[in-house]
Design brief:
single chain, 4% strand
Amino acid sequence: MFTINLPPDRAAFEAEFLADPEAPVRIEASTDNMFCEAAAERIARFADSPDVDDVRIIAMVRDPVARIVSEYEHTLRLGWQTHSLMGSLEAEAKRTEDNWHPLFRHIDRTRYASQIARYRALFGDRVITLDFHKIREAEQRTRLLEWIGREDESGAEEMEHRNKRRVVARPERAAILRNKKLTGLARSVVPKGLRPVVRKIVAGAPMERYEPSAEEIGFIRDALADELRACLDATDIPTEHWDLERLGLS
């Protein structure tokens, strides 16, 4: 239903992925790889190719409610929906059936235990699970670098935060502000001091982080009950930074 800037086909992806024949490490990162069964199977086939040296899998998990809220905010920022989180959760099954973008599969993309088990069945001990909430800490970055065979690089270097949240009250209108022709015309007639006012009128004021209601948290908790318990029982899935009380796991 929606399009984003991705390679249009396999050939284009491979041309980019294999662009530098001397690259010591190649990394492909996507949240879609976690939930998509086809992705896991295709990566396994790629790993079995005679000209492929070593393939390692890094699964990064975060508090399930925080992950879903972040994803929901992302759809708002893109102007893709105006539903409340509850509305988006309730619409997920129908949207999945109608082949909507994966960003609307909030519950399905948060089945960590099943997803990691799928990769472990294919890759065994070549799978490592990291804590999203600690990734900016030097110790975990060092662990990540060592896992991909880059021990010679400093794990103390500050990581850049590129995917910063930016949600406004009227995200569907914010697309106007990304139109270069219109914004160029606006700059020619609107004084610089008034531009923030115009942006606020068009897109609305920036929103604070969405706070899920008790009903929305309950929906998530019930839909993922077995998965959440499996994550808590697993020895390799970090849950120490999850809000276990609101997940009903404390």
